[in-house]
Specification:
single chain, alpha+beta, six-stranded mixed beta sheet, 7 helices, 6 strands, globular
């Protein structure tokens, strides 16, 4: 079977997603608790997702298609990168481990999203669901997948899960993984380096604009410099034919 080798999205997009999660957990939530002088942080584990969704969507700035899919009282943010044909979702390591130990009675949305991640070699030593194939109706999983992805335009291939772990208000790890339908890991890429520096929305556009302006300035100045050089050469006295003694 083939090996899934790399995730071909821009470094800027990885930074946008990673830092959005980081800022929501490490800055937004503590600021709210501090600003309102709250004596407790009850329910913060659920409420932080509102900020995660907001920050990630803002940082990406429309580069990915996105959809908020209702799952009971909960809404899940799904992303779709059309050129690659991959969808993305975000989950904590704790929630994934809980699913790997025990699936709910009805198909979970992650099961449906990863159901097409087939045909890849897996990383050894990963947790695997036992008797998964016999416990689910393929048609039920397929129907759920269709519902989840109905808002996206384009050919959808695989699904990538963005996993993060945290302690209190600190992100301890973040990575992108490709899970097989049996919850084996076929690909894993560490994104921890992207939370170390702030993310500036529109930075790529700003840098590209600056590069274009610098080039235009250089092009406009170059003829002028050539003209000045030519004028200087013309004003020089002619060389003497007398050979010095």
């Amino acid at each position: 079977m083939p090996v899934f080798k790399s995730l071909d999205i821009s470094e800027n997009a990885k930074h946008a997603i990673s830092h959005g999660i980081f800022k929501a957990i490490s800055q937004d939530i503590p600021e709210i608790i501090s600003d309102y002088k709250l004596p407790t942080n009850n329910g913060v584990g659920q409420f932080r997702w509102n900020f995660i969704h907001k920050r990630v969507e803002e940082n990406l700035g429309g580069r990915f298609q996105h959809s908020y899919v209702p799952r009971g009282p909960w809404k899940v943010l799904l992303l779709f990168e059309m050129e690659l044909g991959f969808t993305f979702s975000i989950m904590s390591e704790h929630n994934l481990m809980r699913l790997q130990r025990h699936l709910p009675k009805n198909p979970h949305y992650l099961e449906a999203l990863i159901s097409k991640n087939v045909g890849y070699d897996v990383i050894q030593g990963q947790m695997r669901l036992v008797n998964y194939e016999s416990s689910r109706s393929p048609s039920d999983v397929e129907k759920l997948r269709d519902v989840l992805l109905t808002d996206f335009a384009g050919i959808i291939k695989n699904h990538i899960l963005i996993l993060f772990d945290h302690y209190n208000n600190n992100i301890t790890s973040i990575k992108a993984v490709l899970l097989t339908p049996q919850f084996d890991t076929a690909f894993e890429e560490d994104w921890g380096m992207y939370i170390k520096e702030p993310y500036i929305i529109g930075r790529e556009s700003i840098l590209n604009s600056m590069a274009t302006e610098d080039l235009e300035t250089f092009v406009s100045l170059k003829p002028k410099k050539n003209e000045e050089l030519n004028e200087a050469l013309i004003s020089l006295p002619p060389k003497s034919n007398v050979v010095g003694k």
